[in-house]
Amino acid sequence: MYTPEIYKNENQEEIKKFLQENSFGLLINQTNGKLCATHIPLELDTNKEGKDILYGHISKENPQWNGFIDNDQILAVFSGPHSYISSSWYDHENVPTWNYIAVHVYGKIKIIEGEAVIQSLKKLVDKYEQNSENPVRVEDLSKKTMMQTRGIVAFEIEITEIQATKKLSQNRDEKNYQNIISELEKTNTNQSVAIANEMKKCPI
Q1: What is the mean pLDDT of residues 39-68?
Q2: DSSP for residue 160
Q3: 89, 179 in Cβ contact below 8 A?
Q4: H/E element, 198
Q5: How wide is the angle at C-alpha 112 spanned by C-alphas 108 and 115, nearest 5°?
Q6: At 182, which helix (H) or strand (E)?
Q7: Number of C-alpha atoms within 13 angstroms, CB side, residue 121?
Q8: pTM listed for this prediction
Q9: 167 strand-pairing partners
Q10: Of 68, 77, 57, nearest to 32 (Cα)?
Q11: What is the DSSP string of 57-75?
């Protein structure tokens, strides 16, 4: 991912928090000489060796998983808030742009089987059911329902590289920076307000 130095995010704790909060990603690999991509939750975790991994699963009907066997190199893309930035918000002539937060994760993927699959599903369900009034638990599902796990391919991705971009108008002076925040809040969309809030956390 091309990222000018001024927008690079190298704060590892911040990046991990971002991945945990924006885990619905885009899994990209090459299968049969063709680029494939699937939108799925990819959860950050640590394996038995203490290495950072992502885990997830896709349907066996999805041909993308065949590529995991021939080539273990993958790219996972995670997007955060983003918003258009009008150059009319500056006190000088310039071009419009876009502010955004994104993380690219490179790694080696391997298929997992057996009890490891159930454990990965349990962690996934527990994370997203924790605020439910009547949370579902994998342990409570019937054998009939759990038979559906035969229709998935579960995997782990050992992370080899992370590239993180946080483009939040860091190239502007204090006056224009604060005015961009104000105008984003006036725009009052979920994305513009989210970017304004991120800019407030990242003073220039």
Answers
A1: 96
A2: E
A3: yes
A4: helix 190-201
A5: 150
A6: helix 174-187
A7: 22
A8: 0.93
A9: 100
A10: 68
A11: EEETT-GGGHHHHH--EEE
Kindly write down the DSSP assignment for every residue of 99-149, as one continuous string: EEEEEEEEEEEEEE-THHHHHHHHHHHHHHHTT-SS---GGGS-HHHHGGG
C-alpha closest to that of 74 among 97, 55, 48, 93: 55
Q: What is the mean pLDDT of residues 31-40?
A: 96
Closest CA to 18 of 105, 83, 97, 85: 105
54, 44 Cβ separation under 8 angstroms: yes
Residue from 124, 99, 112 nearest 24 by CA:
124
Alpha-carbon span 177 to 201, nearest angstrom: 12
pLDDT score of 204 more than 80: no
Distance between start and end Cα atoms, the chain? 23
How far apart CA 74 and CA 40 sit, in angstroms, is: 14
pLDDT tens profile 77-106: 999 999 999 999 999 999 999 999 999 999
Among residues 153, 55, 71, 172, which one has the least CA distance to residue 105? Answer: 55
Neighbours of 172 (CB within 10 A): 19
Three-class secondary structure assignment of 25-59: EEEEEEECCEEEEEEEECEEEECCCCCEEEEEEEE
Beta bridge partners of 46: 52
Q: Please report which confidence band the pLDDT of residue 41 belongs to, taking 50, 70 and 90 as the band edges.
A: very high
| Cβ(36)–Cβ(30) below 8 Å | yes
Tokens in use for 59?
């349907």
